[in-house]
């Protein structure tokens, strides 16, 4: 265990300027590992004693706050990266990280409330699709066609939804693929509705056990580790690109976690294992034949350099880094 002064000194040595008040605030919000608070005796208050892992976690919190300043959106990414975060906070904040997805499930509740049977439910979804497209709700912009919204709502919220071939042809034509066949899209609908079971996913995740959560995190960490290794092989592991990696975790980590949950809780954990093993095997292949990754690196490295150089800056300056 280390004292608050020792923790702050260790952070200073790494280039982070964190005030004691800020540290206590992070502790109160559950962003740091639990601290012990032994009494000092003779009415001298209580001290904070931190586990040694608090140094790494506080640095990670500081780095994430450089990328995203809204704390409620950081609990899930921190937990995914192995930080010691209370699982109750992770459960509580998952859907805040996916507010647009939660919005869809609220629509499902609204449609079910106004439906007497399955056909009424489909009619309610169609009505909501027209309403969303015309009013420009947050889930879709004003230019979105009602048919596209209907496909999205039906796929997410109705396990029996099957768009007609004519509807799919119009969708393909609007997306610039008029010669594609609706049959090519059918497996995607089957996967989303049956294998992933989107319609009931939120409720199943809320009922999931702690073991389910930890298994999903392990699966995510395996995939993320493989992607990190690929990035290193492609020359994407420079320290100055760390904010890009954290932005990736903040923006995509919660959605990836929900995706893994959807498969694991629907008896499709074998798919997660198969895909993860294939990704790890691909990493091994690239190690043996590095040239296989050259086209990918040629495409991605210049774009990552542009983002990291400040050509596409974040809308705020550094907060905790002294030498940023």
| Helix/strand order, N-terminal first | EHHEHHHHHHHHHHHHH
In total, how many beta strands? 2
Major β-sheet profile = 2 strands, antiparallel
Q: Could you estimate the helical fraction of the residues in percent?
A: 55-70%
Tell me the radius of gyration.
24 Å
Look at the helices and sheets and give the structural class: mainly alpha
> Number of folding domains?
3
The strands making up the biggest β-sheet line up spatially as: 1-2
Mean pLDDT: 80
The shape, in one word, is: globular
Task: Output the number of helix runs.
Answer: 15
Distance between the termini: 29 Å
- The unreliable regions are 137-143, 311-318
Strand content: under 5%
Furnish the topology, listing elements before pairings:
Layout (H helix, E strand, L loop, with lengths): L1 E2 H10 L6 H9 L20 E2 L3 H14 L7 H6 L6 H8 L4 H15 L4 H18 L10 H12 L7 H10 L11 H10 L5 H7 L2 H24 L8 H23 L4 H20 L5 H15 L16
Antiparallel strand pairs: 1-2
Helix pairs in contact: 1-3, 3-13, 6-7, 7-8, 12-13, 12-14
